Each structure stands twice: as structure tokens, then as C-alpha cells.
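Structural prep section.
Before we set up the soaks we want a predicted structure of the protein with fe (ii) ion in place, mainly to decide which crystallisation condition to try first. Input record follows.
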Amino acid sequence: MKYRSIFASANDQQRQENFENYWVFTQEHGGELFEEEKDLAKKRDRLQHFKDNPVALKTPLKDPESFYRNYVEMQDDPASLDQMTLMLTAIYKFARHEWVGIKGAWEYSPTMAGAKTVEARISRIHLAEEFCHVRLFDEMLKTCGLDKVEWVPLSPWKEKVYEMFPKLPAFLLNAPAFVTELMGVTFYFHLHDLIGKVLKDEPEVCERLRALLDEITIDEIAHVGQRRNFIGATGIKVSKKLVSPFYTHFFKDIPEVALLFNIEQMIADGLAFDFNDVPEKMIERSWIPSYCQLAS
Ligand SMILES: [Fe+2]
Ligand SMILES: [Fe+2]
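Run finished without errors. Recording the C-alpha cells verbatim:
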């Protein structure tokens, strides 16, 4: 055991030091911020590397129309769809929520030049990373031959909810923002396993999808610690209570998830998250709060 629970306690001074430490990490991790393009130099290079070295399915999707018919809204009975189609529509739907959430927050949050605190600077880079994730998800779908995917806004009232969210006062926003990141990491680990099962006869694409997903997961592991660092003693107890209702409610909106994943296990994994099961190659490129690390 090298690490403590993500819900481990931290005092104000530790949290301040960790913000400073994360700021150093995040600049190095993403490289230069291109604010106009909502992009980061190193992430852009990684994505380009994948695009320059494409792989494709040996056996193309049998029925891409079943993806296109169901990816924005499920039209068919989901139980009638094959695992591959369900997995791809689930990936799109998860990423779409992420994309909608960050669009609203990007408009509302101060630009890098206007950011007055280390927390605000961190948040700007964090959002740019999330835009990079949407591009990586898009590349996952393209790798499976789906090059006509459009990023479609949610229904008007749901878009409004996401627009309002970043305007909440910090004491209301911090716990759900942290739990959202934790849910992302949990989902991505489960997705990593599922990709292996669904693509067992397509080793090249399997490996590529996992490599694209790893790029995202490494950032998300850092985000989990970073968002946890915004939270004080009471907030962290509240956060723990939010895990189960939050995951349950969010995944209700994506009917594929219950068919592909064990949601109860995801909740249990979220509650138990402590970095110890994260592969070393990911830890090396990610960030963990000092108070979640056991002294060696
Ligand atoms: Fe993300
Ligand atoms: Fe994130």
C-alpha cells in the first residue's frame, strides 16, 4: 500500500501547498496553452501522433447505421444491439456530457491572463485538457470507422443546467465537481476492461483504443486529486455521500451503461478509490496529492 484513500483528510496548509505543486505539474504535463483553440501543445502532439499512425478494424463494423441511428438518442431496443455498437454509443454519450459541461464552464471561467489565483489558472488548464479529451474520444470513434460523428448539444434545459453549474458558489460546486471527476476515472477503468473483451479479435484497434483512453485517464487521475484538493473537512464527507446517487443518476441517462457495466461495482470502486490499483506507467505521468501518499 503506497497511497491513502482519495477521501483522506487534508488541512488548509496542505491544500494550499498542493495547489502550488499541481500548478507546476500541470504546466509541464500539457505544455503551452493555446487558448483560442482550447488546446495544449503536448496533448495536440499526442493526438497528431495517433492520427499519423492510423490503425483500422480488420473486419469493419457490420452495421454502422445502427451506431448512427442510436448514438445521439437511443431509438432501438438497446438489448437488440451488439456489444460493439453499445460500447461505441456509450463512449459517445459519456463524452458528450463532458463536452457540454466544459463548454459552459469555459465561457464563464477567467482567461489565463485574467486568472488572479493559482486555483483559477489550474482550472483554465483543466478545462483545456477536457476539450482535448473530446478530441481523443472522437479519434476512438474514427478508429472504428465512424467518421461522420457530430457533437450535438443536449436538450435546451439540460444545456442550461450545465451552463448554470459553474456559476454556483464554490461550497456548492466543489463536491459535485470532484465526484464527477471520480466517476470519470471509475468509468474509464471499467471501459478499459470492456474494450479488451469486445475487441479481443482486433488486437491492433484494441490497443489503440486503450492507448487513446489512457491519455484521458492519466489526466483524469490528476483531476481527481486536484478537485479533491478544493474540498475541506465537511465537504469531503458530503462528497462521499454523493458518490452513489451521483453515479446512479448520471448513468440512468445512458441506457447502454447498465447493459455493459456493473454500476454497483463502479460505485464501490469510486468509494474505495486510493490510487493503489493505478498502473505505475500512469502514476508516473499523473499527479497525486501529497496527503494521499504514504511516507515511504
Ligand atoms: Fe475528461
Ligand atoms: Fe477531468
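Observations: The mean pLDDT is 95.
Flagged for discussion at group meeting.
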